[in-house]
Amino acid sequence: MTVPQAPPPDFVTRLWFAWACFFRVLFDGSFAGRAWAVRDAMPELEPARMPKQEPAPSKPKASETKQREREARVDEAKVREEGRTAGLNDGRSQGALSMLSLLQTEGRFVDFLQQDIASFDDQDVGAAARVVHEGCRKALRERVEIVPILADKEGTPVTLEPDFDAHAIKLTGNVRAESSAVKGTLRHKGWRAKAVKLPEPTKGHVHEVLYCAEVEL
């Protein structure tokens, strides 16, 4: 018969146990008799079982590592694309993109700005600018009502009251803190949008597409 092996006690415990057994054998005849009877018949102890070791994880193959890196890059690019699309689809961006699309549709505004005109002569640039100007002016007048901030003629003297709208009027030149009316010369009348009438987007409209690519068959 084998008996499961208990974990061995530490040195202090063994010292105390040996001391206790010594006195009990010395003064307890019954205990001494039992101990004497089993001195040569102690049951064999079951060998201690070593804890089962898990196999060491195998190193990933080079192809698997590259595949994981590619997947991580794809996921990162997807997150960036989703963030970019979310930024294009908020209310402020949609209005700006709609107006930019109208300027491109009516006056080829984006085409003109994206074109490198450094190699063109002034005559060609002037001719192109005239076409862009006409179309963009038409689109702007149809969709946005614009009025001047100051109705005076540019280059003429103007007087501003102390409580003038600093958000709409900018002082330039020799600017000083004034508590009274300010006198100066009007250099630019300024513009204010009085009304905006952008078209309602149709179902499935993609705002970031400013102008469709054209393929002739």
Give a structural overview.
It is a single chain. By secondary structure, this protein is mostly helical. Helices cover about 45% and strands about 10% of the residues. A two-stranded parallel sheet has the order 1-2. Strands 3-6 form a two-stranded antiparallel ribbon. Strands 4-5 form a two-stranded antiparallel ribbon. α4 (about 90-105) crosses α6 (about 120-145).
Give me some keywords for this one.
elongated; two-stranded antiparallel sheet; 45% helix; 217 residues; two-stranded parallel sheet; 6 helices; mainly alpha
Extract low-pLDDT stretches.
Answer: none
Query: What overall form do the CA principal axes indicate?
Result: elongated
Gyration radius, to the nearest Å?
46 Å
* Span of the ends, CA to CA: 94 Å
How much of the sequence is in beta strands? 5-15%
Number of strands: 6
Helicity range: 40-55%
At a glance:
It contains six helices and six strands; from the N terminus they run βααβααααββββ.
Question: How does the SSE layout of this entry go?
Answer:
Layout: E1 2-3, H1 11-27, H2 29-37, E2 44-45, H3 62-88, H4 91-107, H5 109-114, H6 122-143, E3 144-148, E4 157-160, E5 182-185, E6 191-196
Parallel strand pairs: 1-2
Antiparallel strand pairs: 3-6, 4-5
